[in-house]
């Protein structure tokens, strides 16, 4: 508390200046207690304030809420003898120095702490007390990072109450809690949301080679990156063969692709530049998954397995052979002889797979990043002829779909299409073209 920047070599005693100021402030002898020397008893964490107030905290106390510790050092000045801070929020090129020492217990280097104006290690102390780290309280939850499509709200805590020191242990447990929010669907797909972020950097030049600005159209780098790398704002130049990070990270809640398929019902989303898994309950790392019926945390008893095959159809005409209802899960339909037949899928009045008289190419609707997606795959022979069509819908379906078959000129070729579907245990309705009971929600 010395106003002239002097440092009292006797730890935790009052300077004459501070004593006089307090005496004047309180007056009439009410501050006689400041003349007493404190007892050096108890553990270090009881009397080392730097364990609780780091350099950033000390800068904010000295210079205001936007101040932070200086990001560079002067080797000619002892680290613990002066408080050096960036004072202006947008200026990291200069530091303001206050001629007061850092608080005892302030970390000044790897396994080093300030003590009486010196940067010391445990070996320099005669009998250092180990100080184990302890968590601060949780912050308030942040606002949702997205207005629709499933953003992230998070809260954090810090290992600074006190900070670990003198060989003490770090805090155990996570420093962040997060959950999905605003999960109502957007009009655009999850891939569109990533694409919008990439395109926002189209006007930002890329210097290849140095000192030569080049401009590109940027699109998502799906298929080139996945996992944490994908969340680091990785975009592909449209029409080119290279990918570049276009910023520090995608917006929290941007969907990402994990290295291996996530559990049924889990959501992979970017959080602080990393691809993280949220359970079906929307909570980070909860481990909650959907059962085979699509129920979060269920036991698989609310649905039944339906399986059958279909060998009918008309030449040169799309015929619906099964209507898959809302909330159906694990839909798997296979055509093992697609040389003269092919499947189509209709959602409402719109075809999303084929429908124009020819076999579709491999596709995922609406995008590989959407949870409620439909995957259509063509498997080829070594001669590159179609060997099998496969339709996969993990579900739960959000909209009824109609699966159709179109046969070529060979009307007497009775190719069988096989299907398995898990459907809710509710009232059933027999489809006229498929002799099985399909459960429809009522």
UniProtKB/TrEMBL annotation:
Ca(2+) 1 binds at residues 33, 36. GO terms for biological process: extracellular matrix organization; proteolysis. InterPro entries: ADAMTS/ADAMTS-like, ADAMTS_ADAMTS-like, ADAMTS_CR_2, ADAMTS_CR_3, ADAMTS_spacer1, TSP1_rpt, TSP1_rpt_sf. Pfam families: ADAMTS_CR_2, ADAMTS_CR_3, ADAMTS_spacer1, TSP_1. It is found in: Secreted. Keywords: Calcium, Disulfide bond, Glycoprotein, Hydrolase, Metal-binding, Secreted, Zinc. Residues 49-120 form the ADAMTS cysteine-rich domain. Disulfide bonds join 59-85, 70-95, 80-114, 108-119, 144-181, 148-186, 159-171. Ca(2+) 2 binds at residue 36. PROSITE patterns: TSP1. Residues 189-303 form the ADAMTS/ADAMTS-like cysteine-rich domain. GO terms for molecular function: metal ion binding; metalloendopeptidase activity. GO terms for cellular component: extracellular matrix; extracellular region. SMART domains: TSP1. Residues 306-408 form the ADAMTS/ADAMTS-like Spacer domain. PANTHER family: A DISINTEGRIN AND METALLOPROTEINASE WITH THROMBOSPONDIN MOTIFS 13, ADAMTS A DISINTEGRIN AND METALLOPROTEASE WITH THROMBOSPONDIN MOTIFS PROTEASE. This is ADAM metallopeptidase with thrombospondin type 1 motif 13.
